Fold each of these.
Amino acid sequence: MKRRLLFGLLIPSATVLTLAAVTEAALRVAFVNSLDFGVEMWKYAAQLKQPVSNPRIRFVHRPNGHARLMRVDVSINGQGLRDREYSLQKPPGAYRIMMLGDSTTFGWGVPIAETTAKHLERDLNGAGGRQVEVLNAGVGNYNTVQEVSSYVERGRLFRPDLVILVYFINDAEPTPADQSGWLRNRSYFLAFALSRYDALLRLTGGRPGWRTYYDSLYSDSQPGWRDAAGAIADLARQTRRDGASLLVAILPELHQINGDYPFTRAHAMVRAAAEAAGAPVVELIDGLQGHGPESELWVTPLDDHPNGKANALVAAQLRAWVLAHEAAP
């Protein structure tokens, strides 16, 4: 009797495990070269990030990491930047810019040459004058607190002459908790299932839509926004101590920039926080509007991260500001 019961339990268990293994193998083949935002973001976290003990940072890029994401080869240098190698000591006579930001600055979905940092570097060096280096310190899923904390702990050691904080609408989110784990970092099936579950909740109203959610972040009662505003002030103080200039560049959410932009109130709050800290502000929406439908600026029709065209338009605005306000370049 016991043997029959045990046998009866083993068969369905083995069937479930076999199906799970087959599904896992099939998903690994299907998503080896994909444009699926949810799965690709999971691959990014699993393959190129590692946790750190600083609770204000949580995770950093894995030095010398490499992955293929959104059909683009992504390499991380020995200093944890998506960039070429740099010495902490600036080359004699060089002017150095450090860009802080999230996945939009990191260059999600575009080759490194099409990131804003490299567009800006080429544009400024093409203008003549001193050698200019633009370091890309963007990390996907960072908020403003993480970006500033990372600069204070590591970025400032590169002695930049100018720090550009690229602020995006979701930077007022609270700092995420560590969600790493052995199975979570290895299972395509789990990543696929969680991304589809999230999408289902948004479609059925179980979670708020993008416009409602982003707008809800901007209130003085929201701790995420209070922390972001405080981090901007902290960065302004730190850059002054370091003898560096600071520019806050507000990047719009690209779903709807032609016509009535839905987040003008949030942008006004960010601008006020930056100006209260003594930092100049550039509204990047000004140079992105009127360049065709919004989707022509997206990485894919389902992923509104800035593509190469959008990054070039952003870099052109930053170049104009640098040449007008920073005498050294």
Note: The two ends are 84 Å apart (CA to CA).
Amino acid sequence: MVIDMLDLKRKRILLTGGTGFLGGAVHRRLLAIGVPPAQITVPRSAVHDLRRWETCVDVVRDHDVVLHLAANVGGIGYNVAHPGQLFYDNAIMGLQLMEAARHASVERFIVVGTTCEYPEHTPIPLREESLWDGYPAPATAPYGLAKKMLLVQAEAYRREYGFHAIHLLPVNLYGPGDHFDPERSHVVPALIRKITDAKQQGDDAVSVWGSGQATREFLYVEDAAEGIVLATERYDDPAPMNLGTGMETTIETLVRTICSIMGFTGTIQWDASKPEGFPRRCLDATRAQRECGFVARTLLADGLRATIAWYEANARVANV
């Protein structure tokens, strides 16, 4: 539903997760459109534990807009190892923060969800109408379902209380400043670090999880930030909204592209005994284009070059 544009320059904004990978990009985007720095609050997790009700009540106070990006998140390996933590942390943070925001009469609440909410065998491209057509992929289901409960909460609060919450579904993000810790990194930074290590150690092969035939869609982090801010300004509807490029890429193609950019000529060894998550992922992004005018602008190869260049210049910090 198209609405009168929300003038964020005149709003007090709470940005959870604002020091993280995506949150930092959203923060930069808000500043770029003219939001005064003093009107953006970024709670630090070391001080503000959003799993505590009292903290949620405290941080939402005196804010007009809440952008909820804070999450306990990681790659497939991290999801397999910590399903309980991922379910509890993400569910309790979001549920309590939205309830606190309702009590504080926040004007608009934005939840940044995940494509892990989609059923495992949904037809491609993924359309928002298919979100309830089955169970998510088991490896990432606890994380995906925790986020999905926030969609249920948003819809219920809109019906009963007239609360204005929206739910966004970005695809796999990547870009400069990503997390490169093997324990928690997603596929792009994990591959970049793995290939960097292989080159430095003189290895002539790298092992990659899965068969290489799974597909993903990759959204450059600065494009994702633009889409989130546009949706905050222009979208107010209970229906969830995808944010993506609409371009499907196999993991094999991704690996070979990264190897080419980095000049690695060794062998790729596919470990099919390891999980690779959803067999295919590609979004129908027409709703975001129609409702918000959002179109991702960064080509995958260009975004990968920028990410690799950043990592090579910041590896000591990025590997922490």
Note: Residues 8-174+218-247+281-298 form a domain with the Rossmann fold fold (CATH 3.40.50.720).
Amino acid sequence: MPAFPPGDLSGADAWCLLTTPRPEVNLLLMQRCADTGAHVARGLSPGRVPPLLMGPLPGLSPHPLALHEELGAFVRGLPAAPVATQYTRAFEWLCGRLDRRDWVERSAGSAAYADELVRGWPEARYVHLVRDGRATARSMSANDGFRMAVLLEELGHRAATPAGLVGVIASLRTAWIPIERFGELWSRQVAAADRCLRALPDERRLTLRYEDLVGDAAGELRRLASFLGLGGAATGHWVREAAARVARPRTDWRELPDGERARLEAACAPGLALLGY
């Protein structure tokens, strides 16, 4: 089931959507956990890792499994509604359950869903965190998730077969992927997000540059907090704590060999032009 299916979803179907892992992600996690037994330590079946327990809930509670069960009981009882409404109900329940005032969603690769996000939450505020695509592509080339995305794209329909998925996961670390493929992926995602977000009024969109964040973390984070409407003494504490976590990049795309660097620059050119780099 896609992340944003059309029509109304019952509560049971919404919970199925939230708890059914994507096969490729599940296979990747199982391979990474195989030697450590981490999935067993977290109380998870080796063959089924609920998406909410891959990241969101462990960051919100010291007891993520219990929170997962509580949330499931709530969502399954919801009346049928469009998927964005069901997501919103889940977010609002979590706010109440955890005594939070606001919720901010940030998922890797969410630029690919910009159209669906704006349609689902037309009054939300959107933050577009951007970075020089050449540096981004260099970073993506070492990331399992983005390497998997590129390999699956190259396989096409064959990636939908169990054998295709297993083959991709097995070759993930060793497969040679031209770096310009990551530049092309970055440019496409930037173009899709920019086309959608540029149509929003200024008060509902904010662009942050990674390079500015590295140069003045506290200043940029205060700008972010102001845009999101976060205030009070807690904001100052959050800015100081978050600013201390901002690290400078460990690699430089300019260190690539001349030919590789030229191909990367050509692949990134459309996205760089859109963002003004």
Note: Residues 35-41 have pLDDT under 50 and may be disordered.
Amino acid sequence: MPGTTGIFIWATTVTNFLEDDLKVQFHILRSREEGDDIEGIDNLFSLYTTVIRASFGQISKSEVQEIIFVVGAMIFAKQPLSDNVPVMLSGVKIGNSDIMSLIQKDLISITDSGPILCFYHCSFEDFLLSGFFLQELPRFFAVQDQDYHEHQLTMLCLKTLVSFKLHFNICNLESLTTKNVDIQPTVKFIISPLISYSSLF
């Protein structure tokens, strides 16, 4: 059991991990190598390593690259993205919702549920950006390339801003001087999260 640092998120992650397939996942946790001197946050990072190895141990090189593109965007986006945005990144095969399904299913113990793609706890981002991560999971090293992921996000935003999706009077308002009209439902329905993100950042 870890020390007090990260103990609650450690327990939560284990619980979520076991929900997927109790017998198989429990065997993975029991058989993982663990030094006697691992305490606190190192133990939590060791658990995260186990989750990723169990989830992505048998995937192809191209799938590794796509996971890197998506996870990198999750880390370096200015705010959490809706789950249909990362499939539009240039490094992800067009319309490849399978990679999102893979991430959401296999990382269910450390990603939040719902339409917004984000990690359950900030400690997982800390893990992804740590030297521990590079040492234990070197084939995912490009996750930490901030310049590259910010460039990918910038290009996606620019493509969105010059597309037909963004145009004058996008919400079809009859008059800008109309008073006592709640336009928020219309805005939320018509303006996609990607358009909002691109316009803001």
Note: The CA atoms of residues 62 and 159 lie 24 Å apart.
